[in-house]
Design brief:
By secondary structure, this protein is α+β, with helices and mostly antiparallel strands. It has helices at residues 3-13, 22-26, 34-40, 58-71, 127-135, 153-159, 166-169, 172-175, 203-206, 240-252, 265-273, 278-289, 307-321, 331-340, 344-353, 367-385, 417-432, 452-471; strands at residues 18-19, 51-53, 74-78, 98-102, 109-113, 118-122, 139-140, 176-183, 186-190, 215-222, 224-225, 229-238, 259-263, 295-304, 327-330, 356-366, 389-397, 401-411. Its cofactor is FAD. FAD binds at residues 77-83, 210-216.
């Protein structure tokens, strides 16, 4: 980066908040996808930002963008760095330089309105810190994605995140009541009332914009009282079709648990195999005696203000499950899942150390197409990878459909590990196109950009391009992402 923009940025935020050592830049150069991790292990190259800038408040974020627009420097917003679709890759497009705009210092709770149950949080607050800050006022977000330990409020909003308890608390965009963005053209604030007919809701243009239409600095969020009671249980249903029919019935009768997660036979078998002890052997015998030949594990969890409320909701859920032959395994399985639900990334590191290609992808479709979508993605992955373990679960359910979350494990191609997964992901994405969405909650980033027009149409893409031209005429915001 040229000296003049660097000096301008140092004058603004302080020299100590403009980082330029190789290690500091490398730490903000990519996300946490399989391709990101294998590149960091020496398989191939990836772009690194020319500097890292850490503004201290929304006003400084705005000024950083104005400086970068003046000097034609690209800006990649960086929160927790958990993107798995290339959303924080330090691409520079046609810019001579690019900075990572690290929002770590925007870490405050701005306000809490206990009457309206709205809290305003700065973009750099992580999930655990948000809940800690809100707990002091008796509230929680209830937003718990697998990236919870590292991801930030700004990242949740920018990617339309979905949490594991979204059936009860809603997706993140359902929680957003207002948003404050910095853009090269000036600050943009949205959200003044609980509902409005004042034209299209532009909050939904900002939420999900992935840093391409502005840098989110503050988010006003609906909050809920901290639950007094949490109850998680495990059930087993016989077969995928029977299991998804049961979850569909729960959704359409509006009695979903806050957490509702159904694993297919392959994922269930891996879960049982990982706990292969006398209890698991006894469970297998018990399920066989109950006529369960293709076990599909179902995790359900309820959260509420009292034991009575949770008991009532649990009864509503279990009453619907009974005709589908659901076999209750008990609270131990549910609690085991809840305690270990953030362990996936650590397990992935161990698998990578042992030469395994391990990655995830997700999608969603209407109920009528859900099994066709699962079969198409599995077939595409198998045809590309050959021998592989392909697991799938319903991670979120709705009245009209559900999401599918796939986990793939296969032996790493040491000669071409990057190409190996790129070919598999492309095949899966082609299989998804025309049946479901290219992303239910991982966002578009770089990986899904080529499939966006098939989902929203060329006119839709042009609408996004037009919006970007208005707020970012020089194209400095997150080059190469979303569009």
């Amino acid at each position: 980066m040229d000296e003049q923009p660097k000096r301008d940025l140092e004058d603004l935020v302080g020299a100590e908040h403009v980082l330029a050592t190789p290690g500091e830049r490398l730490a903000r150069a990519s996300g946490l996808s399989y391709l990101d991790l294998v590149r960091r292990r020496g398989f191939g190259d990836f772009p690194v930002p020319d500097a890292v800038v850490l503004p201290g408040n929304p006003g400084e974020v705005q000024s950083v963008l104005e400086i970068c627009a003046r000097h034609d420097v690209g800006v990649v917003p960086f929160g927790g760095g958990t993107s798995v679709v290339g959303g924080v890759s330090a691409l520079r497009g046609d810019k001579s330089a690019v900075i990572a705009l690290d929002l770590t210092r925007l870490d405050g709770l701005v306000s809490v309105d206990p009457v309206s149950r709205i809290a305003v949080l700065q973009a750099g607050v992580t999930g655990p810190e948000a809940d800690r800050l809100l707990a002091g006022h008796g509230f929680t977000l209830g937003h718990v994605p697998q990236s919870y330990e590292r991801a930030t409020i700004g990242g949740y909003a920018a990617t339309r995140s979905a949490g594991q308890a979204s059936s009860g608390y809603g997706r993140f965009e359902d929680m957003v009541k207002g948003v404050r963005l910095a853009t090269p053209r000036g600050e943009w604030k949205l959200g003044v009332a609980p509902a409005s007919a004042a034209g299209p809701d532009l909050r939904h243009l900002a939420v999900g914009s992935e840093g391409a239409l502005g840098v989110i600095t503050e988010v006003a969020l609906r909050v809920r009282p901290v639950p007094e009671v949490r109850r998680y249980e495990g059930y087993v249903l016989d077969g995928w079709e029977n299991g998804t029919a049961a979850v569909r019935e729960l959704a359409q009768r509006h009695v979903l648990a806050d957490v509702t997660r159904l694993s297919d036979v392959d994922e269930s078998e891996v879960s049982l195999a990982l706990n292969d002890n006398w209890k698991t052997k006894a469970l297998r015998r018990y399920l066989k005696a109950r006529g369960v030949h293709a076990p599909c594990l179902l995790i359900v969890g309820w959260e509420g203000a009292s034991k009575r409320e949770v008991a009532r909701r649990r009864q509503e859920t279990t009453r619907v499950l009974e005709p589908f032959g659901a076999v209750r395994i008990g609270a131990a399985l549910g609690e085991s899942w809840r305690r270990g639900r953030f362990s996936g990334p650590r397990q992935r590191d161990a698998l990578l150390d042992n030469g395994v290609c391990v990655e995830t992808l997700e999608t969603a479709a209407y109920w009528a197409e859900l099994s066709d979508l699962r079969d198409a993605v599995r077939a595409a992955l198998t045809a590309t990878l050959g021998r592989a373990v392909i697991m799938c679960h319903v991670s979120h359910a709705y009245e009209t459909g559900a999401s599918l979350y796939f986990t793939v494990l296969t032996a790493r191609d040491e000669a071409d590990p990057i190409g190996q997964w790129q070919r598999a992901k492309a095949a899966a994405s082609e299989a998804i196109t025309g049946i479901g969405t290219i992303s239910h909650h991982h966002a578009v980033g770089v990986d899904h950009a080529r499939y966006l027009s098939a989902e929203i149409g060329e006119i839709g893409v042009e609408v996004l391009r037009a919006a970007k031209k208005v707020v970012d005429p020089a194209g400095i915001l997150n080059p190469g992402k979303l569009l």
